[in-house]
Amino acid sequence: MDHLVMTSDPRRLLPSDAPVRLISPEGEPVPHETYRLPSGEALLAAYAAMTTARRVNDQASALVRQGRLAVYPSSHGQEACQVAAAQVLTDDDWLFPTYRDVAAMVARGLDPVEALVLLQGDWHCGHNPYERKVAPQTTPLATQLPHAVGVAHAARLKGEPTVVMALCGDGATSEGDFHEALNFAAVFQTPVVFFVQNNRYAISVPLARQTAAPSLAHKGVGYGIPGEQVDGNDLAALLAVLGTAVERARGGAGPQLVEAHTYRVQAHTNADDPTRYRDEAEVGAWVARDPLRRLGTFLENRALLTAEQAAALDKDADDVAAAMRAGLSKDAEPDPARLFAHVYQTPTPQLAEQAALVADEISRMVDG
Amino acid sequence: MNQPETLTMAQALTRALRDAMAEDESVVMFGEDVGPLGGVFRITDGLTAEFGDARCFDTPLAEAGIVGVAVGMAMNGMRPVVEMQFDAFAYPAFEQVVSHVAKMRNRTRGQVALPIVIRIPYAGGIGGVEHHSDSSEAYFAHTPGLHVVTPSTVADAYGLLRQAITSADPVIFFEPKKLYWSKEQAALGAGVPPIGTAAIRRDGTDATLIAYGPTVPLALEAADVAAQEGRSLQVVDLRSLVPFDDQTVCDAVRSTGRAVVVAEASGFASVSSEIVARVTDRCFHYLAAPIRRVTGFDIPYPPPKLERFHLPDVDRVLDAVDDLQWEDS
């Protein structure tokens, strides 16, 4: 029977029975046997970033209504996840965002105007990925996850201490690339943290149609990856869990899988109508678990955040929003000639011909 | 420059990988069975032994993952060469190729280049069972952002693969399976024309045969037979489907006034139909007859016992040449 015996104990890979929580929805501390509350300083910095993240989300949604952005998939209500994903990384680590992770990119230091260029209607990602080590936002679900594994694998071959934070949502866990990326990462023990923001909906389709697994974090067991689940509206717990995952990956423990339980409070995008598939009571229950208010209450109760400080943070966020309005106030005017410039390092003769055709058309428009 | 030596196309490909890996340590080779086995066609033979498991390695059996990981490794300073085991087994990687490999440079305004080579053994003629003989070049040639090349000679197998590995753009490298064991005398490393240029393999004055990959030797054979019948056929080897060498191809067709395109892939919506369209556009007044095509039929690739009915052969090529309205000239 020996050959049938498990060679590796799966229990070490299992997530906690309940999502890790360090601050209750009412803003009270919750003791945890494994994870510790981050320092007051770290929490205040996180609160500041979350204040900005909320403003970025809501300003971007307003810009859609004003016709300044083509579309915006908001992470309103998921800002704790967005901020934590960025704040647990060093400058040399990489972040791989999806289309719903603009707030995480801003928390990583990107200019929101750059991060929104694509959604304004331009043809490129807006930022230089190497500057802050933020990959272009990826629209096809889960396809960025193997890229994250590749960046981490190359770093490991080069002896660099890079960790890669790879973001995806609950719907993406059904895609084949999610499976292939986790499997690859586990086999090669690459330093990637797969961070799933389970916001309960893939456009209209609820989690129950994505998986019958006990939790998404449990999926790690099948790959040999330790999984953990965390309250996705508790920034303290997210910093603790993701921070631990990043340090484990950096220390050579291989990939880590973290599932955050959160909720997409708003529509998928402005083109969506959530009243067709969920009721207001469900949304209301999640609004009551708002991550910003929760951490704010916790900090205020402990005198870690004064009314003056809170007002100053709001003012900072207002400035960011004003800069967004200014930066995105003009219509994007993409240059048609640029459409041919970066298809190859050197345009093929055929592309050069086509570019000349368009240039000629433009010159006639100007002349005429 | 190396001395001429006699070797197979498979050996030339192996040598290209070996020399590229020895010259540049950012070149890494990975895929299915490419490690100790050396690949099912032995193209990676000896690479793991020589360069170690970090430079030439087996992966999980997952083609989208292989190409997706190559994207990330290329983003982080490596030059990945990946092997898709067979033509039809590259299809799971199609989304990664089309949505990311082909578009990353454009999406990032040239800031992220992906110097990736995706090697695909392709086409038929080796008695393969289903899913082992597809000519899938049209899917990739249709996708902006990719270079698509295919060698027909031993010297090109070496030279084009070395060029593909140093290219700043991703290259789909189609290896004609049935030519793997074709032997030739070649001086590897001798200058071969760059990617994007076609080559005249045989001079001729009456008509031009346009071929690539596995149909180039066939076109040459047809030209031999035609010569015995008193007809002088020129043979153009495209070498590179993207970029396409309009200049060489059109100059050739203008010089003879007649052309036949020979390709294994199904003819409908294919590279061969693109060639006819663009050559006709550019050479219409030089043509004495419409350009003909000899291609595979529009059917799923047939089983080994029937593939000879599907593949272009000398008789079909010569029949097409005979159809080029000679009586009108």
Brief descriptors of the model:
heterodimer; A: 368 residues; alpha/beta; Rossmann fold; two-stranded antiparallel sheet; 7 strands; B: 329 residues; 2 domains; seven-stranded mixed beta sheet; globular
How would you describe what is shown here?
- The complex is a heterodimer of chains A (368) and B (329).
- With 368 residues, chain A is α/β, with parallel strands linked by helices.
- Chain A contains 14 helices and seven strands.
- Chain A has helices spanning 40-65, 79-87, 102-107, 112-115, 117-120, 129-132, 144-157, 176-188, 219-223, 235-253, 280-287, 291-301, 307-327, 349-367, and strands at residues 94-96, 164-169, 192-198, 201-202, 205-206, 227-231, 256-261.
- In chain A, the strands form two sheets. A five-stranded parallel β-sheet of chain A has the order 1-2-3-7-6, sandwiched between helices. Chain A has a two-stranded antiparallel sheet with strand order 4-5.
- In chain A, strand 6, helix 10 and strand 7 (256-261) form a beta-alpha-beta unit.
- In chain A, helix 1 packs antiparallel against helix 12, helix 2 (79-87) packs parallel to helix 10 (235-253) and helix 7 runs parallel beside helix 8.
- Chain B folds into two domains: 5-186, Rossmann fold (3-Layer(aba) Sandwich), CATH 3.40.50; 199-328, Rossmann fold (3-Layer(aba) Sandwich).
- Helix content of chain B is 35%, strand content 20%.
- Chain B has helices spanning 9-23, 47-51, 63-75, 94-101, 104-107, 137-141, 154-166, 215-228, 246-256, 271-283, 307-310, 314-322; strands at 5-8, 27-31, 56-58, 79-83, 117-122, 147-149, 171-176, 183-186, 199-202, 207-211, 233-237, 240-242, 259-266, 292-296.
- In chain B, helix 1 (9-23) packs parallel to helix 7.
- The A-B interface holds A 123-125, 128-130, 135-136, 140, 143, 145-155, 157-158, 162, 176-177, 180-181, 183-184, 187, 338, 341-345, 348-350 and B 28, 54, 59-60, 62, 64-65, 67-78, 80, 92, 95-96, 99-100, 104-113, 144-145, 147, 168-169, 196, 242-244, 246-247.
